Amino acid sequence: MLKPRHADSLARCFLENFPPPRPTMNSLSNKRILLGISGGIAAYKCAELTRMLIKAGATVQVVMTKAATEFITPLTMQALSGNRVHVELLDPEAEAAMSHIELARWADLILVAPATADFIARIANARADDLLSTLILASNAPIAVAPAMNQAMWANAGTQANVKQLEQRGCKLFGPAEGEQACGDVGPGRMLEPEQLVQECASLFKPGILSGLHLLITAGPTREALDPVRFISNHSSGKMAYALASEAVAAGAKVTLISGPVALATPERVTKIDVITAQDMLDACLQHYQGCDIFIGVAAVADYRPENISSEKIKKSEASLQIKLVKNPDIISEIAARDNPPFMVGFAAETSNILDFGREKLRQKNLDLLFANNATDTFNSDSIAATAIHPSGEVELGEGNKNHVARQMLKLISELLVQTRA
141 has which bridge partners? Predict the structure, then answer.
């Protein structure tokens, strides 16, 4: 929880609109990097390079030329990247899973490492005679090459002309370094070390305000069964939570979305876990909350469930029907009560006395921040107006599209989180 000395900080940091310093930001969070490996001895370094890119938060797909497979196996790169390695341009199995055009569109960056003299010559002349060169032609993503070759080959006028041509087209050149080479020569032509390449890749992207952070977000309604065909639920559409998940990814966060039944597409780069009941959602939260930095409870969890669920469809035989309900677990309170909980954010959708109920919920559930809103105005709507409530202050978030308001919410969360860690 934030200390009283931050009494006026909520309104001030929000209104002043300044980004807090985050020296640990990781600008490769959620980035999709297509690593192209051509046939040079430095290909062995791609095992460590892949590991480091993933550790930095990136998702890596590997494409290898046939010559590259002579230096390091596709199986090794598959094990390290966690994804199938692509080698053949015309591969029916690969096309069924992810066509080469889709792969070209998928990438945020194409990094060729090592880039041999031959491969540099081919892409400088816009060749498309294998999968990797074809992807480079078909992609709008930034292209970076990490040259690796004998020092004489690097100094050759033809190679230098090819490199200059690539740079004129906007291709980024990472290296080469100077030093002892595999052939015994000494001079420029060594591929940069994996750590240097990761830093070069990161320099191409602007860090987001949530880079390197892990968010756990609950979404939608829960359904509590009465019998095999009926259930108790509510009107929650899940739109606010899904907007937060989408905007959090755009801000660099790793996002786990635990969602009740909704009719929404999963945002890109979000890990979604589907649940049905309140107990399902609690179980999933308890399984995944450890290690997350921020917990945002947006789901409209059913407060009660039937004490007994009929195994057969309840027949309409009487004029009235009595069903005994029992209280469901309070998910956000359960997480907040754990040792070393993440930064806790709640939502209060009320129909009256919105701010009073919101303040009470913030206190009772031991939350760091709560967004209160009018339930009747927001269920199934694409817009929302909310009030951010903190133990020492409140800020009005004017009505707007849920994605727009989600960005304001996440900015506020980020700023407050920095203060708690100061």
Answer: none
Is 292 a residue of the active site? no
Pair 52, 148: CB distance under 8 Å = no
379-399: string of b/e by CB count within 10 Å (b at 16+)? beeeebebbbbbbebebebee
CA–CA gap between residue 348 and residue 413 (Å, rounded): 16
For 250, residues 6+ apart whose C-beta sits below 8 A from its C-beta are: 208
Residue 196 belongs to some domain of the structure: yes
Residue 346's CATH number: 3.40.50.10300
| Six-digit token string for 94 | 């690969």
- pLDDT tens across 76-119, in order? 999 999 999 999 887 666 555 556 788 899 999 999 999 999 99
Is 49 in the same domain as 131?
yes
Structural domain count of the chain: 2
What whole-number distance in Å separates Cα of residue 95 and Cα of residue 383? 40
Q: Which pLDDT band holds residue 317 (cuts at 50, 70, 90)?
A: confident
Cβ neighbour number for residue 313 with a 10 Å cutoff = 11
Q: Which of 183, 201, 285, 292 is catalytic?
A: 183
The model carries a pTM of 0.78
For residue 249, the enclosing domain spans: 208-305+324-421
The pLDDT of residue 24: 34
